[in-house]
Design brief:
By secondary structure, the protein is mostly helical. The chain contains 16 helices and no strands. The chain folds into 2 domains: 159 residues, Orthogonal Bundle (Tetracycline Repressor, domain 2), CATH 1.10.357.140; 123 residues, Four Helix Bundle (Hemerythrin (Met), subunit A) (Up-down Bundle), CATH 1.20.120.
């Protein structure tokens, strides 16, 4: 796979050699450090506020196995971001040329080696906790590879795969700490749906580069208008599931929290309907992030 574009066609002798600061900055962007921080805080909130008991937060924070689960999740997620960019260099040059890291700051061989090392370390951290956690980690590693190498280029299955992995980052805690499994499960479903919606929106943003390189994502196969209709259905279904399930669990605070989420979800629907340009869909994607954050904060109220 050869890189194209102005930067990559310049002879090696005239390229600006990356400084250590450039390399570190590029690597942190490659592993999406801000996303990893959010994952870590999400797992912390799940462990304290959903699984609890929250009154024993000091004991929870002193539990080494919890930190090993978090570390294993972050290592495997970082490896997933690396392998995703490894397979998507040509597409990213079209969609996000300024964000390409592999081949610019990090050699391809080093990228694949780092990916493998992070995966091994992640599975080993899970194995120290329990074989069940390690099995979840192995499943996640395998699905991340299949997503990056194959599923991402297929309609819907790639979106479902990455959304399932998002939900698993919450459910993996229930493997070791089964208390209040129902609460963790409903938030995992929340994470799945909002991630699925955002992934499809991102596919609309990137449809030109995807189409140019043979990716058959929903917007490429169905077109933008029909893809938006799929999103309308998902948003309404998502909202109904949250409201009905929260009532079924009989948790008043949960029902109120998810009831309040109807407002930003309605705003998401309105902005999606009005979206036409890449910038519009980028704004819709940002709203999805805000809803994720609001969902995270509602755990404090449960």
């Amino acid at each position: 796979m050869f890189l194209t574009g102005k930067y990559f066609n310049r002879p090696a002798s005239v390229r600006n050699k990356p400084t250590p600061k450039d390399f570190l900055s590029g690597f942190l962007r490659l592993i999406r450090i801000q996303n990893l921080v959010i994952v870590a805080f999400t797992q912390l909130f799940v462990r304290i506020f959903l699984i609890g008991p929250r009154e024993e937060w000091k004991r929870i924070l002193a539990d080494p196995y919890f930190y090993l689960i978090v570390l294993s999740t972050l290592l495997i997620a970082a490896a997933g971001y690396i392998i995703n960019d490894y397979f998507d260099i040509k597409i990213d040059i079209v969609n996000k040329p300024k964000r390409v890291i592999i081949g610019r700051y990090l050699k391809r061989r080093m990228a694949i080696g780092t990916h493998q090392l992070l995966n091994v370390l992640g599975v080993l951290c899970g194995l120290v906790v329990s074989y069940k956690v390690a099995l979840v980690n192995i499943f996640s590693v395998s699905l991340l590879w299949l997503y990056s190498e194959r599923y991402k280029r297929q309609p819907l299955i790639g979106n479902v795969a990455v959304s399932l992995l998002t939900a698993l980052s919450l459910l993996i805690l229930s493997v070791e700490y089964p208390r209040h499994h129902g609460l963790v499960l409903i938030y995992a479903v929340f994470a799945f749906f909002i991630s699925l919606i955002r992934e499809i929106v991102k596919d609309i943003e990137d449809r030109r580069g995807d189409a140019a390189h043979g990716c058959r994502t929903l917007p490429v196969v169905l077109g933008v208008r029909k893809t938006k209709r799929v999103l309308y259905v998902l948003i309404v279904l998502f909202t109904l599931i949250l409201l009905v399930w929260s009532q079924y669990l009989g948790n008043r605070a949960l029902a109120i929290s998810f009831g309040l989420l109807v407002l930003p979800l309605a705003w998401l629907l309105v902005r999606l309907r009005r979206a036409h340009t890449r910038k519009d869909f980028s704004s819709v994607s940002t709203i999805c992030k805000v809803i994720m954050l609001i969902g995270l904060l509602t755990m404090i109220l449960i």
